[in-house]
Structure formats: C-alpha cells, structure tokens
Amino acid sequence: MQQLFLRDLGKMSYQPAWDYQEKLLQENLALKASGNKEATRHFFLLVEHPPVYTLGKSGLMEHILIDEDTRIQKGIEFFKTNRGGDITYHGPGQIVGYPILDLEKIYTDIGKYLRNLEEVIIRTMAYYGLKGERSPGETGVWMDPSIPGRERKICAMGVRCSRWVTMHGFAFNVNTDLSYFDMIIPCGIRQKSVTSLELELGKKPDMEEVKQVLTGEFEKVFELELNRNWHQD
C-alpha cells in the first residue's frame, strides 16, 4: 500500500501554508520532469488558519460584502488563490486539509478525486451521527441539500491540479465562528447558509478527535497507508 505522509501544521497563517504546499508540489513535479515518476510522494497537511478570506480563480470580488478598511479593521486577511472555486472563509475551529497527491499513482480523474474528498467528510460526519450529502452541481458537503430553505454547507472545497499533482483542498467547519460567513457570499452561492459540527451537534466536539476520525477515513477512502511520523522543515 502506498504511503500518505501526514503532518498537522497546527495554527499557521495562510501564506506560509500555501508556500509549503507549493514546495511539496514542486518537489513532486521536479521528480516527474526528471523521469523519476515513481519517487513522487503523497502528502496530507492539516492546518487551522487565523481569519482569512480566499478567492478562487473563478471567484468574484463582489462576493466580499465588506470594504477593505472594514476587513482590515476586523483582522481578516485576504488572498487571491490559484485554486478552483469562489470565495470562502478559513478561521479558528475549522479543519483545513491540503492533500498533495500524485493522482497518476491513484487514478487520473479529478471528478472522482473531488467525490472522494466529499466522501471522507461524509464518513466523518456519520461517525457523529450526522448525514452529510452532496448537492448536484455544487462541490462540497451539505446538510439537507434537497430541502429548499434548509440547505446548509458544512465543508467547502477547491483544488488545483498540475501534471496530476493536487494542492489546496477542503475546509471543514467544526467549531467555527460562522458570523464571518455573513460578510461574504460563501462559494458564490446566494440564499444558502453554512453550518458547523458544533451547531449541528449542539455541543463542541474535540478538534483532535475529529482530526483522528477524518484522517482515518481519508486513509480508507483513498486506500493509502498513513505515516504520522513525517516531519519536514
């Protein structure tokens, strides 16, 4: 079974985490370019960001509903990114996962990759007795997506893939302060709300436990063997 090198970065600002992803991706691309494709590795980074809005390649600036001065005053960073998708929020109490996988070693199908990312979150929610679902035509994980007025998103996703090596990933609301979503149109989708594990359960789940469940499900869905002892500066 192929190894999946896991690292929990703890609390880290968005730019250093993005730079770290790029470094790992470029290392894999350099191996491919040198003809040493078999030497590429799969990585999985977990991180919790300070408050930040990120805008995907297809996103619109008008989906940020506050002006720049107000955003700065509130201590919220902002980045235009090279991932797919629109505007989203990252912040404390949210598990952000960045898989840097060489899909040539798994399957060359971005649609299947996204569905499997969703499956990881759906299974993690099932552990807590919650029913996560897909919403047709909308990437991510939802609750009650087929009930008008009840649709609420619990996990946003946006990825980039270069020569079948992935980066960026998902943002899973666990104990997230959802008021930050009120200042944007999340994922560019109007009239649908966001939710969190805490809100749905009526109590604060333990972040470390959720990470353990999530990484275990990731290992099963992608059929990779977790290596939790990897550390790289």
Describe it.
- The chain is of the alpha/beta class and 233 residues long.
- It has one domain (3-227): Bira Bifunctional Protein, Domain 2 (BirA Bifunctional Protein, domain 2, 2-Layer Sandwich), CATH 3.30.930.
- It is 28% helix and 30% strand.
- It has five helices and twelve strands.
- Strands 1, 2, 6, 7, 8, 9, 10, 11 and 12 form a nine-stranded mixed beta sheet that branches.
- Helix 3 packs across helix 5.
- The protein is globular, with a radius of gyration of 17 Å.
- The mean pLDDT is 95.
Largest sheet: 9 strands, mixed
What is the architecture at the second tier of CATH?
Answer: 2-Layer Sandwich
Helix content: 25-40%
CATH class: Alpha Beta
How many independent structural domains? 1
- Unreliable stretches (pLDDT < 50, length at least 5) are none
Q: Specify the overall morphology.
A: globular
> Roughly how many Å apart are the termini?
26 Å
Portion of residues in beta strands equals 25-35%
The assigned structural class equals alpha/beta
Q: Based on DSSP secondary structure assignment, what is the total number of beta strands?
A: 12
Written as H for each helix and E for each strand, in order along the chain, the element string is EHEEHEEEHEEEEEHHE
| CATH fold field value | BirA Bifunctional Protein, domain 2
Calculate the mean pLDDT score and round it: 95
Total count of helical runs of at least 4 residues: 5
The CATH homologous superfamily name equals: Bira Bifunctional Protein, Domain 2
